[in-house]
From TrEMBL:
One GO biological process term: regulation of secondary metabolite biosynthetic process
Source organism superkingdom: Bacteria
Gene name per UniProt: fur
Keyword match Phosphoprotein: no
Name of one Pfam family that matches: FUR
Co-factor binding comment: Binds 1 Mn(2+) or Fe(2+) ion per subunit.
Xref: InterPro entries: FUR (IPR002481), Fur_C (IPR043135), WH-like_DNA-bd_sf (IPR036388), WH_DNA-bd_sf (IPR036390)
Binding site for Zn(2+): 100, 103, 140, 143
Protein name (database record): Ferric uptake regulation protein
The entry's keywords: DNA-binding, Iron, Metal-binding, Repressor, Transcription, Transcription regulation, Zinc
GO molecular function, one term: zinc ion binding
Length: 157
C-alpha cells in the first residue's frame, strides 16, 4: 500500500498538489476498500473513523481532484450515485463491469477485451483511443441461481 501511496503522491506533486493528511486518509480508505466501488458518502464515513475532523466537502473535493488526475475513475452504474474506483498501475485502461439489474451487484472484468477494436478504430478511422470503459447490464449468476430462472424470469422446463 505504501508504494502505491508514494506513486500517487508523486502524481499529485507533478501536477502542483500536495498529499495533505486529509487526501492521504481518503486514499487509504480507497486502497483498503478497492473492490467495493464506494460512493463519496461511503468514503466519508470510513475516513471519518480514521480522521474525525475531516468534513464531507473535503472528501468530495479530494475525490474530484483524484478523478481529474486519473488516480480514480468516477463511475455511475445507473443508480444516480457516483462511485469511485482506483485505477490500477498496470492497466492501460479501466476495467469493465458486470452490473446486475436485480440485486445491483457489480463484478469486474480485469482483462481488456477491446484491444482488437481499438486497433481497428485506429486503422479504419485514424482514431487513437486514449481510454474506454465497458459496462454490461444484466442478471448475475447469483440472482439466476436464487430464482432458478433463465434471466428473463422463465423457469426451465
Amino acid at each position: 500500500m505504501e508504494a502505491r501511496i508514494d506513486k500517487i503522491k508523486q502524481q499529485l506533486q507533478s501536477q502542483g498538489y500536495k498529499l495533505t493528511p486529509q487526501r492521504e486518509a481518503t486514499l487509504r480508505v480507497l486502497l483498503e476498500n478497492e473492490e467495493d466501488h464506494l460512493s463519496a458518502e461511503d468514503v466519508f464515513m470510513l475516513v471519518k473513523e480514521k480522521a474525525p475532523e475531516i468534513g464531507l466537502a473535503t472528501v468530495y473535493r479530494t475525490l474530484e481532484l483524484l478523478s481529474e488526475l486519473h488516480v480514480v475513475e468516477k463511475i455511475n452504474f445507473g443508480d444516480g450515485v457516483a462511485r469511485y474506483d482506483l485505477r490500477t498501475d498496470t492497466a492501460k485502461h479501466h476495467h469493465h463491469h458486470l452490473i446486475c439489474v436485480q440485486c445491483g451487484s457489480m463484478d469486474e472484468i480485469r482483462e481488456d477485451w477491446l484491444g482488437p477494436l481499438e486497433e481497428r478504430l485506429d486503422r479504419e478511422f485514424n482514431f487513437t483511443v486514449m481510454d474506454h470503459r465497458l459496462d454490461f447490464h444484466g442478471i448475475c449468476h447469483r440472482c439466476k441461481d436464487k430464482n432458478n430462472t433463465d434471466g428473463n424470469g422463465n423457469r426451465p422446463e
